[in-house]
Amino acid sequence: MKVGIDMGATSAGTAATLDLEELLATRLLVQGNSGSGKSHLLRRLLEQSAPWVQQCVIDPEGDFVTLAEKFGHVVVDAARTEAELTRIAARIRQHRVSVVLNLEGLDVEQQMRAAAAFLGGLFDAERDYWYPVLVVVDEAQLFAPAVAGEVSDDARKLSLGAMTNLMCRGRKRGLAGVIATQRLAKLAKNVAAEASNFLMGRTFLDIDMARAADLLGMERRQAEMFRDLGRGHFVALGPAMSRRPLPITIGTVETAPRSSSPKLTPLPDAKEDASELIFTPGPEERRPIVRRPAPLPTPTPTADILAQLSRPKPQAEPAAEPQFPAIDEAEREALVESVLREILEDADASFRSDAVLYQDFLVRCRIRRVPGEPLTLPAFRRRFAVARAGVDQKTASGEAWQQVLAMSESVPDDIQGVFLLVAQAAITSAPCPSDAELARAYGSHSARRARRLLTYFEERGLLVLRTDFRGNRVAAFPDLGCETAPGDPNRPDALDEQLAAE
Asked: Boundaries of each AAA+ ATPase domain copy (predicted)?
């Protein structure tokens, strides 16, 4: 179904129409300095497309919450845990509700973590709910910065990864990213490069004008035009609007933001007692407490100092007992292992992102009173991959398993669990895991992806695959001198059968 969204008028006076179905497939990037009309453009797009497509707005300043009054958007306050935001995002895709994620009141790092958890929930929704969604991210340079800033690396990586998934891999899941930024130079290139439609507004810096001209296919000498654009005037290019750079003027909107541009307001009439108004505290003001400096101590006489120095040295006081009891490392490791087993017993754990699982792990550790510093996210990924392989104590203490752990460091973090699962089957001479079991270890329902991972391991020289005369699969590890027993690749996952029986 072809739906044309009226964005305003072109320089020739004709209607500036945006093909909504093409936009869902090709994504949109909006650039403009503060005051150029980016938020007005996004509001026009949201209002015009609200009857046709589900919308999710990532709103760092709370300007788009007014859409709820007229268009029925649900406002989601981001002052929640990351796990809650992920579950809310999954239900949003299931019930196809348009929402505004209000990040107002959070600091930058909290905003990045909340947006990452919310976008992760949208991205990881089940395949049955992959309906088209217009995901609008205002001030995208906050969530996908080109360089590291004052926030922690962990928060930046989570947020940048979520934005990359939205713009690079979101199309197949029905997610159409619309991102707006004040400066292209501040936005990560791999996020900006995935957009095929562009609306470029007023900008003044040479580097931003040059990048805008390059994206629109214009010559560098034409870049000066971006300095002359007025508020609400943009240059459009892309399959959803125009195949050639097209100046347009954004039309009016039906709703208004909570904050607006500052307007000149006449000063009040001059008052004769203005100084008294300033220097006299009001009745509701509390008088500040004035702390007087302590008097200087009386200087010690020289004779007293010499007497103190001539005294015999006092005996050393016994060492104070530690304030906190010593941590029993064996007990701590046992508690960590039990928490990991609890997470693995959850049937949905395999299909959740590492960030969500890590937050669940930290909460469970606090509930269990696990002493010591919690595991970092990389350490958790490593331990969780080992725990997912299901290695018993005897196998884990063997030399072969230590060699397997060394070999697994050469593969990416997200597929280490799959490699360890196959290697554990080879060491114990168990049947080769089926495609369904490998897919669960990878966090996917696709058997084809599981087979592709085995092919990747074989290309890296880590294992050799063969098929016996009955069609069963065998994985041999030349470096370990062992191989799995024949296993049916089409065998269903044992956990799925257990859940079905229950």
From this structure: 24-300
Nearest alpha-carbon partner for 254 in 101, 57, 105, 47 = 47
Residue 374 buriedness (CB in 10 A; 0-12 / 13-18 / 19+): middle
pTM for the model stands at 0.53
Backbone angles phi, psi at 428, to 5 degrees: -90, 5
- Under 8 Å CB-to-CB from 21, ≥6 apart: which residues? 1, 2, 3
Report the 10 Å Cβ neighbour count for 400.
Answer: 17
Q: Is residue 293 part of a domain?
A: no
Q: What is the DSSP letter of 166?
A: I
What is the domain range of residue 341?
A: 328-388
Q: Does residue 100 have a pLDDT over 90?
A: yes
Rounded to an integer, the average pLDDT of 339-349 is 72
Could you say which of 207, 234, 250 is where a domain stops? 250
Helix, strand or coil, per DSSP, at residue 499: helix
SS3 204: coil
Report d(CA 480, CA 96) in Å as an integer.
51
Residue 298 in any domain: the answer is no
Listed in sequence order, the residues at least 6 apart from 456 whose beta carbon sits closer than 8 Å to its beta carbon are 415
Q: Look at residue 244 and give its three-state secondary structure.
A: strand
Is beta strand 464-467 parallel, antiparallel or unpaired with respect to 197-200?
unpaired
- pLDDT over 60 (residue 288): no
For the cut 80, the answer to whether the pLDDT of residue 437 exceeds it is yes
* Same domain? 246 vs 380: no
Question: What is the C-alpha to C-alpha distance for residues 341 and 384, in angstroms, rounded to an integer?
Answer: 9
Alpha carbons 482 and 428: distance in angstroms, whole number = 9
As a whole number, mean pLDDT of residues 13-20 equals 88
